[in-house]
Amino acid sequence: MTNEKSIDLHGLVKDIFTNQPISNAKVELFVSDRVLTSFIAYTNEQGYFIIESPLSDVTPTITVTASDYETITVEISRSDRLGNVELGLHPLFIDPYHLGHIYDVECYLTNKQGELVDLRTASGITFLEIGPRIPIYSRLYTDIPSLIHKIPVLIKGYVVIKVQSERGSFTTPPISFQKIETFMLYAPEGTLLDFQLHAANCEASIQCEPDEYGISRFQELTVSIDLHEHISVTAKEE
């Protein structure tokens, strides 16, 4: 319906990778001249929406929100208002098989910001004692029983997964991980432990299963993290 002040804007909201329509997405059009005015519509099962668009010299903006997708805000030109608008949303999680045939899956240790971990400083990797140091006598190093300590340590950090496919590459945001390791060494109470990474290896694999239509769908991401630590024991300064 068209009048002197507004026109019905037609549009489609879809997944930017699969081109599949997104239903029940909230489409909100904002016009800011002197007073901020908004118009709201929701997409139907086919991803289409109709929303009232003022015929104004002010360029309106549209904000689209949908469950499991990143929110976008775009400007709508006068020519867009006279035709159909297509809006693509980026999913918060991407099924790797939407990217086509997968060539390689890589894994990297990173910090919270997604920057690669420098093994010299181990920045981004946290070591935390989580229990008492338990003294035991062991023949771990010699035939004569010697006193050592069992020390449980919580190790925390982040990894980034990079998928190479026929349609390009996709890199995940940093994914947190944590693991508990028990170290055996002589470290009586009153000493400090200094952890350093000597080497690190991260491997990832993707598993999929066919759905009811025979199409491969993502099922599981498996990440294996192997850390080689160097630990030194020092006395606390008085």
Automatic annotation (TrEMBL):
Xref: SUPFAM superfamilies: Carboxypeptidase regulatory domain-like
InterPro entries tied to this protein: CarboxyPept-like_regulatory
Source superkingdom: Bacteria
Name this polypeptide is given: Carboxypeptidase regulatory-like domain-containing protein
